[in-house]
Amino acid sequence: xxxxxxxxxxxxxxxxxxxxxxxxxxxxxxxxxxxxxxxxxxxxxxxxxxxxxxxxxxxxxxxxxxxxxxxxxxxxxxxxxxxxxxxxxxxxxxxxxxxxxxxxxxxxxxxxxxxxxxxxxxxxxxxxxxxxxxxxxxxxxxxxxxxxxxxxxxxxxxxxxxxxxxxxxxxxxxxxxxxxxxxxxxxxxxxxxxxxxxxxxxxxxxxxxxxxxxxxxxxxxxxxxxxxxxxxxxxxxxxxxxxxxxxxxxxxxxxxxxxxxxxxxxxxxxxxxxxxxxxxxxxxxxxxxxxxxxxxxxxxxxxxxxxxxxxxxxxxxxxxxxxxxxxxxxxxxx
Length: 334
Description:
This protein is an alpha/beta fold. It folds into two domains: 5-13 and 241-333, Aspartate Aminotransferase, domain 1 (Alpha-Beta Complex), CATH 3.90.1150.10; 18-238, Type I PLP-dependent aspartate aminotransferase-like (Major domain) (Aspartate Aminotransferase, domain 2, 3-Layer(aba) Sandwich). It is built from twelve helices and twelve strands. The two termini are 30 Å apart.
């Protein structure tokens, strides 16, 4: 895919924020040194940013690494993990690594998480439930009232993970402090891979009740957060204006891409993430058209229920390439 525009991994199309890039240039001469044994300094920075005590934060190798820590901490042999489908394709891989069974509930036809169906799918062996909001791959969000109702229905016996990898791109989000006060079994996962554009550094954090986080922190890997992340993350969190500008650019381009697809007569789902989901019963064919136009996109099909193609929102040039490629679909069907 080296010659294709990479719109298949939901990466930022931009390099690190200018202040972060400057800090990383200064870091390079320290690359021969080990990072912290455990990321306690970085943990304190994140805790201050979020507004919680450091005993309520765990660090990991992106949201993916943290999800694995959660499964290790709370799932034993023969126990199960509940998610929606389609979703982030790393989840079943992590479950397999942890020796945990997976149960998956199909998304609604509008791309939203079917919370009543997920509640009904909870079994005696279910230990961890993952909700993504904004969702990957559809970009749908779970309303705060819906979330409270679901958490009340689930009770405190099971861990509920709220994956917020894309929260910066949403118009609004739930009051996480209220959620965490009400539900000690809730864990919120966030990453620096998406809005901050630091995917290669593998850094993310989990927030939760101190007693819950203690178990997740038990699985933090020594030297697991590299010193590059240790330098970049504090600067990234401080660069609020730079990040706001970057996020606004992605949101603006998301609106432009969605409008252009509508003009082509192509069905899309509403999105609050850095990607759009094109519904189609022939996702492989649509992805092939995009590939022919120089664009790599992610295909969802088969037994997952909702079928379509996920396209990452990037810059104007990338949007123009997507629109040029997909305009051929209308021409072929005219």
